[in-house]
Structures are given as C-alpha cells and as structure tokens.
Amino acid sequence: MLQIRRPTLHDLNDCVRLDSSYTTQRVWQMSLDVQAHDIQSNFHLIYLPRPVTFTTAPVTENLLQCWQRGDCLLAARMQRPETTQDALVGSALVGFIHLLPDPQTRSGRIVHHAIAPDHRRRGIGGRLLQAAIRWAREHNLHSATVEVPTKNHPAISFYMEQGFTFTGFHERTYGDQEIMFQLARSTLR
After folding, report:
1. N or C: which end of the chain has fewer CB within 10 A?
2. Is a pLDDT exceeding 70 seen at residue 50?
3. Distance (Å, rounded) from C-alpha 172 to C-alpha 177?
C-alpha cells in the first residue's frame, strides 16, 4: 500500500539518500543554425547505440529548511508486508517531490522529483506529481514548472504525458554545460 504524505524528519534523511540515477537509450540533441538575421534551434530525439546510466547530482538544498519554510514536500512510502504474517510492518521511502512555491508569480518550481529505481513505472511518480499539483492549487499557484536535462528522456516523456509542455531551454548555465528543457503546466485543470 502506498502512502503519500508530508515527510517526517526521518523521511527527509531518506529523501537525501534516494537513488535518482536513470538509464536511457534516447537523448535530445540540439542543433543551432545562426544566420545574419535568423537564429534557429532545433531538438532531435536520437537513439544511442546502447543504454547509458546517468547519475544525478545529490540533493544540495537543506530539506529541513525547505520543510520548515512550508515548501511542498511530499514523501511516498510503501508498506512492506511481513514475511511471516499478513500484517503490514515497516515501510520504505520509494519517492519524493519538492515543489518550491513562488507566490509573486503564482507558480511552483519542481526542484526534486525522484522515485527509487525498483519502484519506477508503477504510477508512484504520477501520484506524487498529482498530489503536488493539488497542493499548488490549494496554495493559489496557477502553474508548475520543471527543468530537465535533455539526456533524461524518461523524465521528459513522463512530464509530457502529465500535461507539461515545452516552454524553452537553458544552454550552458550549469557547471557541466548541460542543456536543460524547461517544461510547464497549469495547475488549474
């Protein structure tokens, strides 16, 4: 049984340790054409010769401060069945989402959204996202945004399936000069 709730202090420690690496065989590649009076950028989905696993940067925000500040932090815990009885005992953190609200722009930015590798493709990410969208709506935020590396095709596909649309990109603004897609969706529907 899956339980989504505001995290406890114990949950925050588990969130920081959650493995958010991913494997893909598809990435988005950018081409740039600069002319005298025209600049055009295109993104093409390309297939890699073999699956590649990427590690993600560790959680650097102080989640305790985010929790104390009242950000939207939600944890997903899966109850573990006990092996000797039918009773459910204990639980494991299987995912979390952190949406940073900006009341001035009435939007929320998804800072972290991670699901444990063994629990992916089971609807947990979607349930966490829907709970965060509900929270945003209840806090009078009209949109949610997220930035995703162009090499994280699984996440880009997930967000597009959840109603997010491409709104732009950042190029070379990160230490590893990675290109980030900007995606957004309304929280009002």
Report:
1. C
2. yes
3. 4
Q: Using CA atoms, how far apart are residues 110 and 159, in angstroms rounded to an integer?
A: 11
Long-range CB contact pairs, 57-61, < 8 A, 24+: 58/16, 59/15, 59/16, 59/112, 61/98, 61/111, 61/112
Q: For the segment 96-143, what is each residue's pLDDT rounded down to a tens digit?
A: 999 999 999 999 999 999 999 999 999 999 999 999 999 999 999 999
Q: Are 171 and 30 in contact (CB under 8 A)?
A: yes
Give the DSSP H or E segment for 159.
helix 153-161
DSSP letter assigned to residue 187: S
d(CA 114, CA 12): 13
For the chain, give every domain's residue range: 2-186
Rounded CA gap, 58 and 20, in Å? 9
User: 2-186: what fold?
Assistant: Aminopeptidase (3.40.630)
Read off the pTM: 0.89
